[in-house]
């Protein structure tokens, strides 16, 4: 965990601005869930079908297992099976963007190169973001580039320093220095897929959260953040409601409009970063979560 920007964020929003390794965040959340309900996480279950009889749901999994539930929350990502079950099958579309991601121990870099501690660089058809994590011991970087086609499947496809250096040929030397310092086996790539926003997230006793409900491009850095927002609003909706359908309706009505807006703004931000063009008639300008006011949103206080 690394804190950035000093007290600026606390003074504006009442909370610090932190960068955290995604694996560390996953581990902390899983630990909290298991402490509250030991053994509640069951792995290697692939949903095949769901029946909702108006009172409860029956879930059928690929191994033949059956589970009854009062409510079903689909948090199964951009290729969500539950989304297809509830709203019909539609394939995520390749956006033309690919992402490179690497981790570099800070001691492999020249002193002073990571200044400021968080930075995004933009240029034609590419952008490069890097920031400190794990109390400043590691540099996480993500390079977003554009390609006409994509044939590989997976979130952790191995890449190489040579491939990424070629992709960022002509960029300033600090970017090349960071890429060259990446240890063997610590550089990956994947394709970015997208879906259009849904007009509805709820069917009976089932709903969606996170990327299953609103997958978005990473240019505003809001994908995981909005999944956490969804979870907070959903918990508050259940606390305020008397029935499952009422809770899911309260939940859906609160964050859906915001998520749709952020999804569309994330697409526009990618165009601005990579080409200087805007989808609106306004002149291209810098766009970020802060400039768009996203950080002022408090999911613990919005009405449900």
Structure description:
This protein has 304 residues and is of the alpha+beta class. Helices cover 30% and strands 25% of the residues. The strands form four sheets. The protein has a six-stranded antiparallel β-sheet, sandwiched between helices. Strands 3-4-5 form a three-stranded antiparallel β-sheet. Strand 8 and strand 9 form a beta hairpin. The longest helix has 20 residues. The two termini are 31 Å apart. About 2% of the residues have low confidence.
Features:
single chain, 304 residues, alpha+beta, six-stranded antiparallel sheet, three-stranded antiparallel sheet, 8 helices, 14 strands, 30% helix, globular
Give a short synopsis of this structure.
The chain is α+β, with helices and mostly antiparallel strands.
Order of helices and strands: EHEHEEEEHEEEEEHHEEEHHH
State the total count of DSSP E strands: 14
Number of helices: 8
Helix content: 25-40%
Strands side by side in the biggest sheet: 8-9-10-7-12-11
User: How far apart lie the N and C ends?
Assistant: 31 Å
What's the pLDDT, averaged over the residues? 90
Tell me the strand percentage band.
15-25%
pLDDT < 50 stretches = 277-283
The structural class is alpha+beta
Outline: globular
Radius of gyration: 21 Å
Largest sheet: 6 strands, antiparallel
Outline the fold blueprint.
Elements: E1 2-4, H1 8-13, E2 17-19, H2 22-36, E3 47-52, E4 57-61, E5 66-69, E6 72-74, H3 81-87, E7 93-105, E8 118-123, E9 126-133, E10 138-146, E11 157-158, H4 161-167, H5 173-180, E12 187-194, E13 202-203, E14 206-208, H6 223-240, H7 244-253, H8 256-275
Parallel strand pairs: 6-14
Antiparallel strand pairs: 1-2, 3-4, 4-5, 7-10, 7-12, 8-9, 9-10, 11-12, 13-14
């Amino acid at each position: 965990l690394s804190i950035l920007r000093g007290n600026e964020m606390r003074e504006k929003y009442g909370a610090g601005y932190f960068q955290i390794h995604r694996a560390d965040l996953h581990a902390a959340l899983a630990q909290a869930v298991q402490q509250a309900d030991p053994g509640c996480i069951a792995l290697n279950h692939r949903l095949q079908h769901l029946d909702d009889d108006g009172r409860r749901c029956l879930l059928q999994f690929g191994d033949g297992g059956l589970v009854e539930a009062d409510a079903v929350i689909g948090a199964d990502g951009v290729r969500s099976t539950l989304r297809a079950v509830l709203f019909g099958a539609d394939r995520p579309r390749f956006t033309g963007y690919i992402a490179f991601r690497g981790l570099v121990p800070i001691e492999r870099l020249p002193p002073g190169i990571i200044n400021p501690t968080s930075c995004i660089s933009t240029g034609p058809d590419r952008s490069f973001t890097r920031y400190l994590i794990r109390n400043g011991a590691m540099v996480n970087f993500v390079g977003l580039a554009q390609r006409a086609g994509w044939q590989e499947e997976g979130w952790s496809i191995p890449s190489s320093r040579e491939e990424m250096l070629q992709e960022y040929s002509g960029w300033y030397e600090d970017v090349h220095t960071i890429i060259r310092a990446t240890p063997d086996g610590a550089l990956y790539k994947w394709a970015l897929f997208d879906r259009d926003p849904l007009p509805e997230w709820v069917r009976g006793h089932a709903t969606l959260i996170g990327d299953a409900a609103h997958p978005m491009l990473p240019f505003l850095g809001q994908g995981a953040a909005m999944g956490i927002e969804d979870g907070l609003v959903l918990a508050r909706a259940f606390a305020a409601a008397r029935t499952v359908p009422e809770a899911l309706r309260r939940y859906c009505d609160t964050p859906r409009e915001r998520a749709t807006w952020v999804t569309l703004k994330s697409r526009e931000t990618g165009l601005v970063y990579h080409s200087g063009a805007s989808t609106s008639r306004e002149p291209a300008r810098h766009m970020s979560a802060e400039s768009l006011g996203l950080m002022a949103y408090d999911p613990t206080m919005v009405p449900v």
